[in-house]
Amino acid sequence: MRLLLVEDDNHVAAALSAVLARHGFDVTHARSGEEALQALVPEGAGFGVVLLDLGLPDQDGYEVCGKIRKRTGTPVIMVTARSDVRSRIHGLNLGADDYVVKPYDTGELLARIHAVSRRTVQEDTPGGGEGALRLGPVHIELPTRQVSVDGSVIQLTRKEFDLLALLAQRPGVVFRREQIISEVWRTSWEGTGRTLEVHVASLRAKLRMPALIETVRGVGYRLVAPDA
């Protein structure tokens, strides 16, 4: 995957570029907002993800994010020391796909990069092709966004499908509530927790499989793969 790293600190950029390269990324380093915007011409220039630092020398990172979003749908992950909730919400409202606060764990950053790129591939796939998940009687077609149980199609809302697909791609793995909200609703946890609970309850009812999605008290949820 080609990745655009927007970071004005050359030492930080060099260290991070080395880590990303070891994990198979082709990294292009932009040192300013203008350099980043030029690198994304035309139409994203083939980049899979943009890692955008907010403390840039020529433009505010939020402004750069807004400009990127007007030109391309390339996923943007903001990387910044600003940890307050309002800053995160502001970034997400401008079109950022995720928000990572410094100092961060490299493993978490890599997981978030893969998450946003995987989600974008799913959304951009118009239909057909690979991308089916089978969990016992539950069949999930990612490209067509269709879910069936024992051959009967279940009508789900967009967010219900996104939630189910996220959990189903890693059965047995516990997803934190904050992580689910970030990936499915693309916003922060604040004020959205009740919405998540409602969607989980609705999925259990529609699929008629209350044990399919297990609540992990104090942490989040995981999908328990049923027997075939």
Give the oligomer, counting copies of the same chain as homo and different chains as hetero.
single chain
Main sheet: strands, sense, barrel: 5 strands, parallel
Number of helices: 8
Q: What is the helix content?
A: 40-55%
Largest beta sheet: what is the strand line-up? 2-1-3-4-5
Order of helices and strands: EHEHEHEHEHEEEEHEHHEE
Write down the Rg: 19 Å
The tally of strands reads 12
Shape: elongated
Mean pLDDT: 84
Stretches with pLDDT under 50, minimum 5 residues: 124-129
Determine the N-to-C terminus distance.
35 Å
Q: Please report which band the strand proportion falls in: under 5%, 5-15%, 15-25%, 25-35%, 35-45% or over 45%.
A: 15-25%
- Based on secondary structure, the structural category is alpha/beta
Task: Please summarize what this structure is.
The protein is an alpha/beta fold. It has 8 helices and 12 strands. A 5-stranded parallel sheet has the order 2-1-3-4-5, with helices on both faces.
